[in-house]
Amino acid sequence: MQQPIGLFDSGIGGTSIWKEVVKQLPNEQTIYLADSKNAPYGEKSKEEILKFSIKNTELLLEKGCKLIIVACNTATTNAIDYLRANYNVPFIGIEPAIKPAALKSKTEAIGILATKGTLSSALFEKTTKVYAKNITTIEQDGEGLVPLIEDGKLGSSEIKQLLENYLKPMLKFNIDHLVLGCTHYPYLIPQIREIVGKNVTIIDSGEAVAKQTKAILTKHKLLNTTINTKPHQFYSNTNKQVLETILNNVLATFTIEELEF
Ligand code: DGL
After folding, report:
1. CATH number of the domain residue 252 falls in
2. pLDDT value for 76
3. Distance 10 CA to ligand 1 centre (A)
4. Which of the residues 17, 110, 182, 242 is marked catalytic?
5. Atom number in ligand 1 closest to CA 94
6. Contacts of 138 (CB under 8 A, 6+ apart)
7. 7, 114, 190, 258: which could join 69 in a potential S-S bond, CB 3.0 to 4.6 Å?
8. To test ligand 1's pocket by mutation, which of 18, 35, 36, 41 has the most ligand atoms within 8 angstroms of CB?
9. Counting atoms of ligand 1 from 1, which one is nearest the CA of 75?
10. What is the mean pLDDT of residues 136-161?
11. Catalytic residue check, 65
């Protein structure tokens, strides 16, 4: 089926998921919404996160999307149940990968860096209870990181300082896995690696989300079996420049437009 796959995030973070989706599903066209005007979602109330998620979903459905990837942990953990119950397309979400980290941890201590919105959600609490009840989990709110990334400050000393404040205390608990619970954070991996060293495994879920998307498209017979010739479409409701920078090295053909939504 040639209809596009839709993705949305509070901004540019979900492009870390999009890159994996395009790699694993080269026949698919995608439409991506960067709701940067409303970032960071992680500092908003559950009601507001739900309102933004509904708005983004409805725009993607108007554009004919056959499946929607909620490329944002904060929106997934606060809104995906509602979206699944109220819209008639499959939804793929992303949640902090606590289960694989807990299963693989030898020190029985893992760190989770995520937004306040994700850490305070009922879904996060449930997942932690089920999969990490016998290990130590150090949860840290990454407050301030998303706005800096959205401002184009990747690699900056401000980000380095925040990461040091957030990650160094985790190391005292001898964590051997760090779960990145926000789709913006994979762009911080070089700086995170410098702080946590070689012995901590950093887990991000982009690949798993793309794999799950492929499985669900197959199950619902929604895969595009012909070669995609249309460009991927990106929409930003603020300045599109940060999105342009983050997609700089991407080989796929795409367009980026500023749009009111
Ligand atoms: N990219 C987001 C996530 O995965 C949202 C971060 C935010 O806007 O606070 O949680």
Report:
1. 3.40.50.1860
2. 97
3. 6
4. 182
5. 4
6. 109, 110, 111, 112, 169, 170, 173, 175
7. 7
8. 41
9. 10
10. 97
11. no
Q: pLDDT tens across 160-218, in order? A: 999 999 999 999 999 999 999 999 999 999 999 999 999 999 999 999 999 999 999 99
**Angle between helix 15-24 and helix 206-219 axes, rounded to 10 deg:** 50
Task: Specify the number of domains making up the chain.
Answer: 2
Average pLDDT over residues 220-236: 95
**242 phi/psi in degrees, rounded to 5:** -65, -40
The answer to whether residues 117 and 90 belong to one domain is: no
Query: Is 75 strand, coil or helix?
Result: helix
Residue 73 CB less than 6 A away from ligand 1: yes
Distance, in Å, from the CA atom of 61 to the CA atom of 89, rounded to the nearest integer, reads 9
Structural domain containing residue 144 = 98-203
Q: Does residue 109 sit in the same domain as residue 87?
A: no
pLDDT given at position 1: 85
Q: How far is the CA of 234 from the centre of ligand 1 (A)?
A: 18
Domain boundary among 203, 225, 242: 203
